[in-house]
Write a structure and sequence with these properties.
The protein is α/β, with parallel strands linked by helices and about 220 residues long. About 35% of the residues lie in helices and about 15% in strands. It has a 5-stranded parallel beta sheet. A two-stranded antiparallel sheet has the order 5-6. The chain has a two-stranded antiparallel sheet with strand order 8-9. Helix 4 links the parallel strand 3 and strand 4.
Amino acid sequence: MPTIWIIGDSTVEDNKPPFRGWGWALPEFVREGVAVKNHALSGRSSRSFWEEKLFEPVAAGMQAGDMLLIQFGHNDEKDDERHTDPDSTYPEHLMRYVNAAREKGALPVLLTSVSRRFFSEPTSLMYTHGEYPRAVRELAKKEKLPLCDLEADSRKLYLSLGPDKTAELFVRLAPGENPDFPDGHDDKTHFNAYGAKEIVKLIVNELKQYPQCAAYLKD
């Protein structure tokens, strides 16, 4: 059985409801006989995911004919031990995953980080990922890899919806609604189930542009 492996951060992981990363929603869109194994984990960068050896079970399980979806960046930006530089250590760490997939005969796919929900005005959305998306685009071009430009796609989606409709994609909790957030919560990074499905549709549309990726997906 071919497998789609996923590595990334909290915007990708299955997560605890009401939080849902887009990896949770992907199985609905794959062909019968294709497995999805989501190893994404909250708070991880391309560096810390590797250093914590979270990739080891993925590397051990990957086989020829599998696909590996790689989305990091949200935590690579952080100014702590997870940090990577978009012009050096970030692409270097991404290449570790790319090379591991290639060695197993699996297909690596790069994704830019999904956009956050920060509107400066109703028709203007802030860029919050700096040079990291550019680094992914350049690496995909250099290595001739399939690319899902999720930052660009999600920006277009948010701008088409506007601030109020975009907010419906994210976790928003009223005071007292959830014991983990007694004062309420208005998240601008993490999706609810509806949002995860809308984001994964963007990814599926991008993957279908590549025949080698489309083979894993429903028509």
